[in-house]
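Let us work through a complete example step by step.
Step 1: write down the sequence.
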Amino acid sequence: MDILGIDIGGSGIKGAIVASETGQLCSEKVEIATPQPATPQLIAEVVSQLVEMYQWSGAIGCGFPAVIQKGVAKTAANIDLSWIDTDVQQLIQNKTGCPCFVVNDADAAGLAEMTFGAGRGIEGTVLVLTLGTGIGSALFSQGLLFPNLELGALPLHGAPAENYASAAVRTAQNLNWQNWSERLNEFLLLVERLISPELIIVGGGVSSKSEKFFPYLGTRAKLTPAQLQNQAGIIGSACFAARSGEEIG
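Step 2: predict the structure and record it as tokens.
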């Protein structure tokens, strides 16, 4: 089943048509800058633009930077706070006329990696992290997702961990790879004390440079870079829509 996968982020909104059975993109990926302020109406307008660009009328899977419960945003990360308690699913359906299924963006990336990427076939406890503007997290046990796990919000040195160890912090504070890795490792050790994953998959754009920081990390869990990188959110959103559609149908 082909599904339009859309990955909404704080800086860009990416989309592509995905073959949900294989995880392959069936179209060119398109990215549009996230409007500022990133309000519900303005972001819904960008999603509508993507639908029109692809001349799309089928199902949409949408990864969204928030805790999502039954299609409703309960938090708002790097987007406008007016999203809180907004029915994201209904808003996009009304704007596009397409059936829409919404999932937390890190959960979407995790689903992609577990289905088609570095976590494929692994049944133990797996943690997928997305390092970018913040730190997204998705936890799986026996292949099943524990949704909306916001580990980036854990306190570390008196602030959310993502304010101390995200990839964006490395850039903003001009940290070298070793210094940033030491911060990241503090976060990883904190997480290990809580959930003891057997495998940690590190995603986000920085995962393509894993050789620069993996040597400085020391965890009990096996570490591996994500395989799908910046396509993971698009692919995982499509996977979520396909599964949700089957459950409803």
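Step 3: interpret the result. Residues 36 and 211 are 35 Å apart (CA to CA).
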